[in-house]
Amino acid sequence: GGDREGEEVTPDQIAWVRHKSRPAAEAVVRNLHSARGMPYALGPLTTERGGTYILCGAGPSLTAALPHLAGLQERGAIICTVNTALRAVAAVVEPDVVLTRETVDVSSHLAHRAKLRVLDLAASPKVWAAAMAQGPCAWFVQGSNQFAEVSNALGVRPLFGGTAAMTALVALVAEWGASHIVLAGCDLALAD
Length: 192
What we know:
Oligomer: single chain
Number of helices: 8
Helix content: 25-40%
């Protein structure tokens, strides 16, 4: 109702148009078509380096960590988020995984090398298109109230990693069976 001339717009329709979840819900619907041909991200990451994951954030300490990433990558998988961390990390090593959750178009940030891109089902469809053009991708449904029915309907386990990309990375590598997690550029992280 309300889409055709002369039809009355209901209060529910007005609320939906104004609701903060609308962009994410629309992205989920658009991205579902692409997700059909991709693996679900909560399966284990295949790596010869065992269960060590080096998670790179965009904090100031990343600069000091950059010269050590190649040596760290010999012992574990380098994983970062789509932000300035990806640009800095990709200049030194090819990240094993890049995670994106952005609901805005940051597709230009995906031009950097990576072996796998992990996409939030609610991320921008433009980001999904750019990521798929770059190479292998996997996807996940975020573990939140607004997406509980989506994960139930799809028959997938949601990723409970909060709303930030870095906390989602920690949750993801825990799902992948991490034995060790090294944080680089995560300046507000606790030491132990």
